[in-house]
Amino acid sequence: MSLTAGIVGLPNVGKSTLFNAITQSQVEAANYPFATIQPNVGVVEVPDERIDNIAALFNPKKIIRTTFEFTDIAGLVKGASKGEGLGNQFLSHIRQVDAVCHVVRCFDNPDITHVEGSVDPIRDIEIINLELALADLQTVENRLTKVERKAQAKDKEAAAEYAVLSKLVEALREGKAARSVELTKEEALTAKSYQLLTAKPMIYVANMSEDEIADPENNAYYKLVKAYAEAENNDVIAICAQIEEELSSLEKEEKLAFLE
Length: 260
Fold this sequence. Notes:
Layout: E1 2-8, H1 15-23, E2 40-45, H2 49-58, E3 67-72, E4 99-105, H3 121-152, H4 156-173, H5 185-192, E5 202-207, H6 220-232, E6 235-239, H7 241-248, H8 252-259
Parallel strand pairs: 1-3, 1-4, 4-5, 5-6
Antiparallel strand pairs: 2-3
């Protein structure tokens, strides 16, 4: 079984650092925007003590573990749907993922550039979410154009699809996520075929500094992200990507010693 996730966020928020930490890769994580141009893909095995225990009992010739594939794409900026920054063409690389990991900067550091000039996690979240919604809107509107004539000709299947597309267009034009649209089971199956980014589960990753990660609740930025995620019924994870990246390069014994 394989699960997949796409890593998104503004430039310089720690996406590639997180990717390195998870996949034990060594992709460039530089202090300037758009250090990532080509998507980075890494696959990791999911630890499972149950499988280890069963394998110890039966000693099978081969063990097939669940894997998780992560894709790290170039940072999005405000106006990416209109060609700003590197545009939004990289989103095509994560349309087939199971979930989206949205990395949000929750630390102050004057030595690390912020593309918006200041740290404001809610503003940053809304920039990315709007760009994802606009990318989905383009997908849905293109499909709507193709279906509209058939629907007007009283094609039943086309008419049903047109109704679904119309609901999605209305929400996306308002900058809302496709997952916020109420659909029947049949309508949801139709919508799933469009592989909309805002229809996928969203996990916010609050990237914090080393001196604050021990108690995230004392970080004002994290509390804002947590409240925002809860309002959307999404999850949030607090991490220090830099520490996690450093830990990933250590041997098992060294990791345990560090954690102690």
